[in-house]
Structure formats: structure tokens, C-alpha cells
Amino acid sequence: xxxxxxxxxxxxxxxxxxxxxxxxxxxxxxxxxxxxxxxxxxxxxxxxxxxxxxxxxxxxxxxxxxxxxxxxxxxxxxxxxxxxxxxxxxxxxxxxxxxxxxxxxxxxxxxx
Length: 112
Description:
Oligomer: single chain
Shape: globular
Helix content: 10-25%
């Protein structure tokens, strides 16, 4: 993983491939202190168990065609959301929405 600071937010880029599904993840960007709350939780409205691993959440996101994973702090629940990739990326990058200090948001980009 390689980290860089953009607009005061730490973003980590990595590549993850799910061999179960035919989809391939091109990249996963990590945004700290942000949440895309205008987009609804698409799967498990009340969130997933806090003890689930990041890998399990990526698999669930791929299987449910979601491109946003949100974690409500270290001890918080996981949430899956679906949004237009470019719209979500723009809102997360410019930081105009969802400033929440404890949150971590992952934006998944799929190959076409």
C-alpha cells in the first residue's frame, strides 16, 4: 500500500482481486474523517458487526455491487453503500460533505 496526503486527508491505494466473482477491483481509496452520508446504506440497514474484517467487507461489497464501505470508528459498525463512482470520488476528495472525525470511508473502483 502506498499513502499520500491529499487535501489534508490520508488516502491509501491498494489493489484487491476477488476470485469468487467475475468483477475485479481496480483500486480502493481510503478516506479518513469522511462519510458519504447522502448515499443510503444498501445492504444491512443497521450495519454489519464491528468484528468483521476488511477483507470480508470487500467481498460483501463486490457480491452486493456496492462501491462504498464505511466504518464508524475503530469500535464501530461497517456499512455498505452504492453510488456513482465519480460523484462519490469528487465529494470525498473535495471534503464538502460528511466531515466525521472518527469515520473511515473506502471507495472501490471496479474494472469494466
